[in-house]
Design goal:
9-stranded antiparallel β-sheet, alpha+beta, 39 strands
């Protein structure tokens, strides 16, 4: 039963790309369709993008900054916005590209029975099986991080029954050649420019001589008996007992600041190296190496719910049953682990970060360019990394920040005359940091927002808070955080009341009605901006104290932080979103960025700032009352986390169910936005909901561990193993009848543990009872020892 709950399965092949099953090793990805007579595996590689390094800076922007600020201080917000949209924006980001397709055409045909397509999350193997003409065929697909190849194994339960022809294709400029009877090669290049899917253009995809990313796909076949020869369209295997295909892919990407055509790496050599190494192993050896490497990450966390589920049904039928009102708590378990699977599959040390679609994309003009959208989406991708015990998968984001620190310095200097580094809402492979949207003249509600740096820096600090790695803090995190703070010190200006404010400021991607009755997005000191500035200054101060450096800088940050506008409660009892209590143009707007201080920040806390926490609840209630069709996937995922922080299990579970009722059949989030002519696949909701499920069971903000802070009543019995908490703790929990039964806390760093529990508890280490300090009712404290485990049990009354 436990193993079966970790399988997504179906009674029929995928008809559309959004029904296919994702596989990946962080760098190389595939979407497996599972056809019986023809298999299609759509291919991606995380460095295959349009474009090349360029200068995106708008050298006109700085000359308009003071006028914009003056207009904002005068209350002429619409006019300030118009000036920004006309003169202060920059170019579109580059677009993530679909690499190609592998087709496997079976050479026999007939009626298909006993069909089953599945993705085993525990093994990271996609398996298709069926019976045709009395023969049972099995096809297994995985992408190995250990060997950097995709492995496709075809077998039959009778000898000599595997006959298949393999071919490669691509939407991009390419050519295919047979290098040898057992090797097929596709070579191509990406466009030098792609207009985003929402932009009208007579020539949206542009190729130029001597420009564009070069790429290569190499496929080799290793047959067990039978024959292997050149076919009409590719490699042809006939009458084999089994065949293993190995696929390698690479691009000429050689760094964000190097031209991939003129100064790129050699994808041919990389493909050959990987294939030569991998082909020395048998299929079973490759599978064993893959499962061992992947399992070391995936097996760290196990969630078990003692509640009924519909595991006997295929996954698509389970989703439909949920829509019809049936209960399926086990689907939440599957969804939780699917989120962890997706992060392992799309973000590994040394790869690019997971983008809007992870690493899976079938278009040349993908939705929102398939970029790294950093006003919520990229950050949400990584909320689960630390708490769900995948800290290594967080590192590609940190590498991206190292690069943005370089391009962002130019943006800060040229656009704003500031030091440090700045970044706006859309980032790409070439580390674009300027505001995009210039070709469309905005709107500034999303196009202008120079505050991505502080938000992204939170991830550096969180990685330190969870792991306690002082070397990481000193060498990687603090230098990036410090430069982002230096930008803010220059960006802040004094308002007429004497506060330091951001000006111009937006609350992505929302708008308000100004005193003059005009709709606008631009003003001063949005609540999100204030929360980000407060948090980054606070974190930098703490980091500099830990590292015993920059005392004068620490004092400067403290002085500036003390002059920020305080968080305010508005006319409806809501947390005010802007510096003034403007009327909202869309009270049900999908974004809730003004609640950042509640989650993912922790400046607002129900136990420490109850009035502000209640104002956050009012804000969420108002959003729900006015909720429209554009409140969708990722919005629901954020609500799970926000209500979990408020301790509201019922509302958190409500939004989890809304999310589970609405994915594609493959459980990937369906972005069902009413303004779109098609529904794209985006992954941030999957990642955000996985993080949210962890928040329901364990929280560790505000310097304390909170056990079962928002346990849904539907999950009355269960356990979870391997969640991580800030302070260097790993926690196992078990609960019965909706209450904590026992917990185990492992301390890797020997820090003091402050523990909040709704029940009286006692702590022991082995046979020894640990003396605890009663800090306040329900809050216990005790000193831990490095690498020691502590058992938490319910105290006898």
């Amino acid at each position: 039963m436990k193993d079966r709950s970790m399988k997504m399965w179906y009674r029929k092949p995928a008809k559309e790309w959004v029904e296919a099953l994702p596989v990946g090793n962080g760098r190389l990805g595939g979407m497996v369709f599972g056809g019986a007579e023809q298999e299609r595996i759509q291919l991606n590689e995380d460095t295959l993008w349009s474009g090349h390094p360029d200068d995106p800076a708008n050298h006109e922007a700085l000359s308009h900054l003071e006028k914009v600020r003056q207009l904002n201080f005068e209350g002429s917000y619409a006019e300030a916005q118009e000036l920004i949209e006309e003169h202060m924006l920059g170019p579109w980001s580059a677009s993530y590209q679909a690499m190609g397709d592998l087709y496997l055409q079976m050479e026999n045909a007939g009626d298909v029975t006993e069909y089953r397509r599945e993705l085993n999350l525990k093994r990271a193997v996609c398996r298709t099986s069926f019976v045709m003409n009395g023969v049972r065929y099995v096809r297994e697909v995985f992408v190995s991080a250990a060997d950097q190849v995709m492995v496709i194994h075809l077998s039959a339960d009778q000898p000599g029954k595997v006959s298949v022809q393999a071919s490669l294709d691509s939407l991009l400029e390419h050519k295919v050649k047979l290098d040898a009877p057992d090797r097929l090669i596709l070579q191509g290049r990406s466009p030098s420019h792609v207009e985003p899917f929402h932009a009208r253009s007579a020539d949206p995809v542009v190729y130029e001589e001597g420009k564009g990313m070069r790429f290569e796909i190499q496929l080799i076949a290793m047959a067990d008996q039978g024959s292997l020869e050149q076919g009409e369209h590719g490699l042809k295997v006939e009458r084999a007992n089994a065949v293993t295909f190995l696929l390698a892919a690479a691009t000429s990407f050689n760094g964000f600041d190097r031209d991939p055509f003129q100064d790129g790496s050699n994808p041919t050599l990389r493909c050959e190296e990987w294939l030569n190494r991998a082909s020395a192993y048998s299929f079973q050896q490759l599978l064993h190496r893959h499962e061992n490497e992947y399992g070391e990450l995936f097996d760290r966390v196990e969630l078990v719910l003692g509640a009924p589920g519909l595991t006997e049904l295929p996954t698509d039928e389970r989703i439909q049953a949920l829509r019809e009102g049936r209960e399926d708590a086990q689907l939440a378990v599957l969804f939780f682990q699917f989120g962890r699977y997706l992060l392992i599959s799309s973000s590994r040390p040394g790869t690019q970060p997971a983008n809007l679609q992870g690493i899976w994309n079938d278009r040349t003009r993908p939705p929102w360019a398939g970029n790294y959208t950093v006003n919520i989406n990229l950050q949400m991708n990584y909320w689960l990394a630390e708490s769900c015990n995948l800290a290594e998968c967080h590192t590609p984001l940190f590498d991206l920040l190292e690069d943005l620190r370089v391009t962002g310095r130019e943006t800060a200097k040229i656009h704003y005359g500031a030091s440090g580094w700045a970044c706006h809402h859309a980032v790409d492979l070439w580390r674009l940091s300027t505001p995009s949207g210039g070709p469309s003249k905005g709107p500034a509600s999303w196009a202008f927002w120079p505050m991505a740096g502080p938000w992204l820096c939170q991830h550096l600090w969180e990685h330190y808070r969870f792991g306690g790695d002082v070397a990481f803090l000193r060498e990687k995190a603090y230098p990036i955080m410090k430069e982002a703070a230096l930008f803010l010190l220059d960006w802040l200006v004094k308002d007429p009341e004497g506060y330091l404010v951001t000006n111009p400021s937006t609350s992505p991607e929302n708008t308000f009605i100004g005193p003059d009755g005009k709709k606008a997005a631009v003003s001063i000191a949005s609540t999100l901006d204030n929360s980000l500035v407060w948090e980054l200054f606070t974190n930098c101060m703490e980091a500099s104290a830990i590292l015993e450096t920059d005392t004068e800088f620490r004092h400067e940050l403290l002085a500036a932080r003390n002059r920020l506008r305080p968080l305010r409660i508005g006319r409806y009892g809501q947390l005010q979103e802007w510096s003034q209590d403007f009327e909202e143009a869309e009270p049900g707007h999908r974004h809730t960025v003004h609640l950042y201080a509640l989650h993912p920040g922790d400046q607002i806390d129900p136990y420490i700032t109850p009035d502000l926490a209640e104002a956050c609840r009012v804000s969420l209630d108002r959003r729900q009352q006015h909720e429209k069709e554009d409140a969708i996937g990722w919005c629901f995922a954020w609500r799970i986390n926000q209500f979990a922080r408020l301790g509201d299990a019922d509302m958190a579970h409500h939004y989890l169910i809304k999310l589970l009722e609405n994915p594609f059949p493959n459980l990937l989030n369906a972005h069902r936005h009413p303004k779109l002519s098609f529904y794209p696949l985006t992954v941030e909701a999957n990642f955000g909901a996985t993080a949210g499920i962890a928040e329901l069971l364990l929280q560790s903000q505000a310097g304390e561990l909170r056990l079962l802070p928002a346990l849904p009543k539907e999950w009355a019995e269960g356990s979870i193993r391997g969640l991580r908490a800030r302070g260097g703790f790993t926690v196992d929990l078990a609960w019965e009848e909706g209450k904590l039964a026992a917990a185990c806390i492992y301390s890797s760093n020997g820090n003091y543990c402050r523990l909040r529990s709704q029940q009286p508890i006692q702590i022991s280490a082995g046979a020894e009872r640990i003396q605890t300090e009663m800090i306040e009712p329900g809050v216990y404290g005790f000193q831990t020892t490095v690498n020691q485990s502590y058992r938490v049990t319910i105290a006898e009354s």
